Amino acid sequence: MKEKYKDILEWVYCIIIALVLALLFRYFVATPTIVKQRSMFPTLQENQRLILNRTFRITKKKPEKGDIITFEAPTKTYSKWEADQSNPVAVYDNEPKGLFNKFVYYILEITKKSYIKRVIALEGDHVKIEDNKVYVNGELLEEEYLKNDVITESDVFYDFIVPEGYFFAMGDNRTKSTDCRQIGCIPFDKLEGIVIFRFWPFSEFGGIE
What we know:
Blueprint: H1 2-28, E1 30-34, E2 49-53, H2 56-59, E3 68-72, H3 99-108, E4 114-122, E5 126-130, E6 133-136, E7 139-140, E8 159-161, E9 166-170, H4 180-183, E10 186-187, E11 191-200, E12 206-207
């Protein structure tokens, strides 16, 4: 009987270790995700499967302009009357309470809502949206990934400098995207992943630009 219990305990230990390693890999290295929004159409479509790179949590390397990323959804969407161009930052006031709730929210990510967008500008960049176009540091942003008839409008955040420690991101499907134009710039610590490649459907397997 002692040998039997010993075998059971060894299996339990192995399962626990495997789960811990899987969670660590998922949090710090890479994880799959599913596109559930139309905000990145036509670059990404609903129900496509992607792999996210999360090694930035170890290396502290920040995303680059043009990267497609996911981040924790803010809790507030600004109106044009609330927007302060001198303080264009997202609001997060849903911090979970208790160790278990934080584990479920930040590690298992079961109750967390996320957005997928494209990085347009980084800290210190001057963003200006006018005449249906985007200007970064005074230069027209060339966006070859957009459809020809896409225009960029904003009456909320449209002329500001990205604060230190933040980034500015928008969806490729501009008229159908709730993004930093309405929610403000996102702090780097709310970044969840950088898209590496698409693995489903197999007909579109590969990197994404």
